[in-house]
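Below is how a single chain appears once it has passed through the pipeline. First comes the sequence as given, then the structure the pipeline wrote out for it. We keep one example in the README because the format questions we get most often are answered faster by looking than by reading.
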Amino acid sequence: MNQLAALQRIQQLGVPAFETRDISALLQVSPANASALLSRLASRGFVRRLARGRWSVGVQANQEQLAGQLAAPWPAYVSLQSALFRHGLIEQVPEVLYAVTLGRARRIRTPSGALSLHRIPPALFGGYETTDDGIQIATPEKAVFDLLYLAPTRSRLFVSVPEMEFPRSFRWGEVARWAKKIAGKSRRVFVERKLTALKRGPKPATATNRTR
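Resulting structure:
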């Protein structure tokens, strides 16, 4: 099969990203031949290599749209600082794309940036919506919960909670509802205390601090 015919069949899949083994099955060729074909298509700009064994059609792939594909075979959704920024709760643009998954925690480097995947248990996986452009993203409340839940993890990435601006529509009760689902008592108490502190807001400056 020539490259043009192969590309047409790949485009007919209608998915934002795929793996080498998918193309091997689609074209009924060996994984090695599929990899070589995709490499040739990539050199001509028809497909793009995202990570080892993973590709997308064209060069304008949206990294947020690909989060679920890059986390495969485990499901994932955009959350944490990335979702907080998209919802307008924080102002600083995250340096990497953060997502929550049922698979192992890891970082995947792609031509368009890095994807940082963080694992939570199945009982806490959810609370996301699918946007019109196909992005699965946590609601503002779930993004805050995910941040608090992952704060004490070994990576220490989320120990410092960023300064957030909460709209009047923010549903504090929804965050508390997720907190009650945490199986471990110590983690549940930790999250509930952090949540209470967030609701109270930052401590006012003391007289000593104001005079400095």
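Confidence is low (pLDDT under 50) at residues 204-212.

See the next section for the split statistics.
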